[in-house]
């Protein structure tokens, strides 16, 4: 397989400037330096790097609700025209209220006048902040994923969308977990629509891709499989990502979750990926959600997987011998991020 990298420098426009975690503003780990580290690594190895082609907002609606797209596009400007930047002095978009379903008389909640409350219609958490350049970066990431998918539709065997911010926690009408638009889901839907055949999403990020699962939970055309730290052990996304979630309606049996205990290491993680490979065997094409935060020294995960483990993971997925789009998700150890990505891609390309 000859690999092409799709990359946009616009990712640096997204500067969340921290997270609000259990009420405390902390530094956060989803930084512009992540994208720069990956770009440096794939450039050094000699992979060809191309820019994404232009996209229209309507292309985002293949997997996302128009209301979410409008909100993300306008959130920061709406925030700037509110009082929040001055009182209490919050310079990033963050929700302060969430519409619990038991509070609502009408199951379709109103759109509040307050942008702080309106944000709670779409946000899963208070960690995923929106700044002045967030929409530009988010849209560029989506363009990279769609361009990589289009390369596959044009006959390429392997394309890698080197994007940030990540996307697999974003669903049809919600965002969170440092994710805004679901880049992997956009790629999978593009390939499925373009080929008319089944596509498999293999998610090897350390955390469950709850957004991708939600988007395709009733679909038999897009299989979803994820290997991740057990949400029942206290890890995000907490409420979903369990083995009994197998799909619904036309998607029954199309969803597979493999949960792992803290400290699992290479053998257990690779065995989980092998299960996902087998789950994906009926698909004609593959989209990989490439999180490398399962690494043994990653600050966001306790799975303790080595660099060599990531290389072997690429080799397992290569054995499917199907056209493959890789979309970057997590990975937060900046000293090893590029090395981990290249190790996986080398395994995927060369076995």
What's the topology here?
Blueprint: E1 3-6, E2 19-21, E3 24-26, H1 32-45, E4 49-50, H2 66-80, H3 115-119, H4 134-153, E5 158-161, H5 183-195, E6 199-203, H6 210-216, E7 222-229, E8 255-260, H7 265-279, E9 285-290, H8 307-318, E10 324-328, H9 337-350
Parallel strand pairs: 1-4, 1-5, 5-10, 6-7, 6-9, 7-8, 9-10
Antiparallel strand pairs: 2-3
Structural description of this entry:
Helix 1 crosses helix 9 (337-350), helix 4 (134-153) runs parallel beside helix 5 (183-195) and helix 7 runs parallel beside helix 8. The strands form two sheets. The protein has an eight-stranded parallel sheet, with helices on both faces. A two-stranded antiparallel ribbon has the order 2-3. It has helices at residues 32-45, 66-80, 115-119, 134-153, 183-195, 210-216, 265-279, 307-318, 337-350; strands at residues 3-6, 19-21, 24-26, 49-50, 158-161, 199-203, 222-229, 255-260, 285-290, 324-328. The protein is globular and about 55 Å long. The protein starts with a strand and ends with a helix. The protein has nine helices and ten strands. Strand 6, helix 6 and strand 7 form a beta-alpha-beta unit. The protein has one domain (3-69, 127-350): Histone deacetylase domain (Arginase, Chain A, 3-Layer(aba) Sandwich). The relative contact order is 0.15. 33% of the residues lie in helices and 13% in strands. By secondary structure, the protein is an alpha/beta fold.
